[in-house]
Amino acid sequence: MRIDIVTIFPEYFAPLDLSLLGKARASGMVDIRVHDLRSWTYDRHNTVDDTPYGGGPGMVMKPEPWGQALDTVLADRQGESVPRLVIPTPSGAPFTQRDAERLTEEPWLVFACGRYEGIDARVAAEAAESMPVEELSVGDYVLAGGEAPTLVMVEAVTRLLPGLLGNADSAVQDSFARGEMSALLEGPVYTKPSVWREREVPEVLLSGNHAAVDRWRRDEALRRTAQNRPELLAHVTGLDQRDREVLAEVGVRITDANMAD
């Protein structure tokens, strides 16, 4: 997979050289290229923004450097491949695990990191003539720019690449992973020692009874989801009688539509 990132703060992406992603980048499993948008400015101040038409606070990123930057990246295509342009923005569609899985199938992604009040809207419209374009949001809050959301999305996407995680089952068992458990959060996890500061690991995890462990983990996932993200329970199907009992303990009433046939 190839990923191009255009930003006015290239140094923001130093974390891409760390941990598993850094190893994958060093080995060539993923080709990540970070570009400084100011390379496509031609005044002595390297200006990338200007006041908004129609008035209002803040500044808007100018279309000229963005257009030239994307033209340059696109010109470096290999064969007939065309990238998908992702623009992180609070006004975009919510980025979910499903989007991470979908984007993992793309051979080439380009991230455009906006700043200030955003990028001149004509840039996305123009880019759409040459490549797929989508706007994505990592949450209902506003950040200073698109760099942090890009780091989030790049990590979410690349960790799903075959071979990047040492244990392929790790991604499958995550909260929001594919399948019936997709709407449940992951429960608590423990490691050695079995007793730490007089706090013991739940006995069932030491029992060697895999069926009991699986049941405990599901119970805890149900409890945590009910506590932290109760709205997700409406999307869980195939609940059995034990699931209903666990949820009843925490005050959640489940309709027949959620129950297993």
TrEMBL record:
SUPFAM superfamilies: alpha/beta knot. Its EC number is 2.1.1.228. It catalyses: guanosine(37) in tRNA + S-adenosyl-L-methionine = N(1)-methylguanosine(37) in tRNA + S-adenosyl-L-homocysteine + H(+). Keywords: Cytoplasm, Methyltransferase, S-adenosyl-L-methionine, Transferase, tRNA processing. Coiled coil: none annotated. CDD domains: TrmD-like. Residues 1-233 form the tRNA methyltransferase TRMD/TRM10-type domain. It is found in: Cytoplasm. GO terms for molecular function: tRNA (guanine(37)-N1)-methyltransferase activity. GO terms for biological process: methylation. It is an enzyme of class 2 (transferase). Its main location: cytoplasm. Homodimer. Specifically methylates guanosine-37 in various tRNAs. Belongs to the RNA methyltransferase TrmD family. This is tRNA (guanine-N(1)-)-methyltransferase.
